[in-house]
Amino acid sequence: MKVLTVFGTRPEIIRLSVITRLLARHCEQILVHTGQNYDPNLSDLFLKELEVGPINHHLGIQTSRFGAQAGQILARMDDLMDEIKPDRLLILGDTNSGLSAIVAARKGIPVFHLEAGNRCFDNRVPEEVNRRIIDHSSDILLPYTNRSAENLVREGIRRERIFVVGNPILEVLQTYGPQIAKSNILEKLNLQAREYFLVTMHRAENVDPPERLQALVKGLSELGTVYGKPVIVSVHPRTADRIRKLGANLDTSKLRLEQPFGLFDFVHLEKNALGIVSDSGTVQEEACIFGIPNVTIRDVTERPETLECGSNFLSGSISTRLKTGMELSLASAGRWQAPAEYRCENTSVVVAKIVLGYTHALSIP
Predict the structure, then answer these.
(1) Structural domains in the chain?
(2) How far apart (Å, rounded) are the C-alpha atoms in residues 223 and 232?
(3) Strand, helix or coil at 108?
(4) Dihedral angle over CA of 100, 103, 108, 110, nearest 10
(5) What is each CA distance from 148 to 4, 144, 225, 332, in whole angstroms?
(6) What kind and span of H or E run contains 211?
(7) Catalytic site residues?
């Protein structure tokens, strides 16, 4: 059996790392990197650390414009699927790379979508549109949570095609636990545990509008001043580009801007931070699991379970809400329990069994 697995971003590589290694032992697995977020610090480093590979096909699509990027992905995947003739397509999440599901659906290739059913119910978020397109182009839906499964049912997808498999992130963190523990990133950055804030921000809605990026930088600077702690910012290439363009109009002097970290170093920083500020979906989950106070600089989240358990606070870009959110989060640090779906330790086996063995639902309309 040929299983074609397509990805193009750091979160996809991380979440699929254990699953792809397992599938490789039981089928002919073909890995495709679209190049969607290709950068040596964001892709090559993670592929090497997580031992994902070899990459069989690298599409090299590096444009950031949606129309050009999506068009190239669809065209290249159309040709590639004709060449490979896979028996299955496995995709994860809501990226433009996941739009490969459209091509597979047109060719009658069964599509298995991991992380299906996530919804923030705000179509201004680019990924929200992708989620609906990918889910409704897929044959088998593999949501992390029961809430996500119910989202799919409400949209008219048959329950027979939906399997709740749990979140793969804990299994990934456990698999690479020894390497994470050995990281010396605190020494490299001259940091002490619980004596710094960790920040990531990369989403278009946060870094593209100059006024919003300026508001976030102001709020983060004030956060460091209030608590007297350094603010360590892992700077995504998109964010770095926007900072350069703003130049003197953006005061980042009170922030420590760092090149993107590898997975092991970044998770080590997460586990030892006083608090985290981020717009990342993965970070919301990891902070929840680690018991680290987290403020999400977004107006909505497709992970409402983190709000319900008490591990997350949505601040948007307003500096006063960011400070309020961190104050509340620090006061309740570690008092929550991660949702059951975040505590799954065998998601890779569950997914592999469904992808390789389940065929009944493929004929269900």
Answers:
(1) 2-168+344-363 (3.40.50.2000), 177-342 (3.40.50.2000)
(2) 12
(3) coil
(4) 0
(5) 24, 7, 39, 27
(6) helix 210-227
(7) 202
Contacts (Cβ under 8 Å, ≥6 apart) of 194: 272, 273, 274
How does the average pLDDT of the chain come out, rounded?
94
Please state whether the predicted TM-score (pTM) of the whole model is above 0.90: yes
Identify the band that residue 74 occupies on the pLDDT scale cut at 50, 70 and 90: very high
Q: Give the model confidence (pLDDT) of 326-335 as tens digits.
A: 999 999 998 9
Amino acid in position 321: R
Q: How confident is the model at residue 178 (pLDDT cuts 50, 70, 90)?
A: very high
What CA–CA distances, in Å, run from 158 to 55, 141, 150?
34, 10, 10
Say how far apart CA 102 and CA 83 lie, in whole Å: 17
Is the pLDDT assigned to residue 267 strictly greater than 80?
yes
Question: Are the beta carbons of 172 and 18 closer than 8 angstroms?
Answer: yes
Helix (H) or strand (E) segment spanning residue 324: helix 319-331
Find, among 165, 109, 168, the residue nearest to 137 by Cα: 109
pLDDT confidence of residue 363: 57
* 330-354 mean pLDDT: 96
CA-to-CA distance for 241 and 234, rounded, in angstroms? 13
Alpha carbon dihedral 155, 161, 166, 169, in 10-degree steps, equals -90
Q: What is the mean pLDDT of residues 207-214?
A: 94
